[in-house]
Amino acid sequence: MGNAYCILGGCIDQASVGVVERWGRFEHIAEPGCHFFNPLAGQWLAGVLSTRINSLDVKIETKTKDNVFVQLVCSIQYRVVKASADDAFYELQNPREQIQAYVFDVVRALVPMMTLDALFEQKGEVAKSVLEELEKVMGAYGYSIEHILMVDILPDPSVRKAMNEINAAQRLQLASVYKGEAEKILQVKRAEAEAEAKYLGGVGVARQRQAITDGLRENILNFSDKVTGTSAKEVMDLIMITQYFDTIRDLGNSSKNTTVFLPHGPGHVRDISDQIRNGLMEAASAQVNDD
After folding, report:
1. CB of 60 within 8 A of CB of 108?
2. Which of 118, 158, 169, 217 suits 262 as a labelling partner, its CA being 20 to 30 A distant?
3. Angstrom distance (rounded) from CA 171 to CA 217
């Protein structure tokens, strides 16, 4: 499909407009469809303009505020305004070069006032400034600027490599901080667990000793009640001797037994029982004094 026309008439496609002249002077805009011209009256079709959206990619090389050379790729989408098609046809010889020149002018005036980081963060502001300037200028020539996209920002390869290295170093530093915090929390939790385990172990030992004391007391009382003529001291000596022999038996039956030297004999057993009894009596006396 295309626009077809001759001296006597022409067919203009949809999304296009024709420029009709009479004796070399603009007469009117021809809408899409079939038109007839009167060559005897000097009327003819001077040209056809498309009203579709056109795209123009512009590459601009400039320098930022921190002296980094960058290349910007800017995409401009524009179209001919149907009501002002005569201005678009007669005013500009090459509209693409005109648009490109204004883009160069705006970008090279704005980017040198921004650092490279600010340029990446505010590329939308750059596109907005270019759009405002082009709308103001190109509107007078019958063109409408639809959209402007800042497609890409390309610093020098060495600058990109340096930026990646800085980013990697910052991430490694942040990872080290997180790792240190994790190790700190782990050590604190381990210390808290160890303290709790020691506390519970102490509570268990205290309860064990209390249970042993209560059991000995109950055994002494029961034995004294059932066997007449025995004193508490005699019962305590008997219990101590029994536990003494039980301990020796347990040491002998242990699978991981080692050589243990213990004084043995009735006198030594009596000494051990006296020491235990004295310790219990001293503990009881200290508790009474505290009360």
Report:
1. yes
2. 217
3. 68
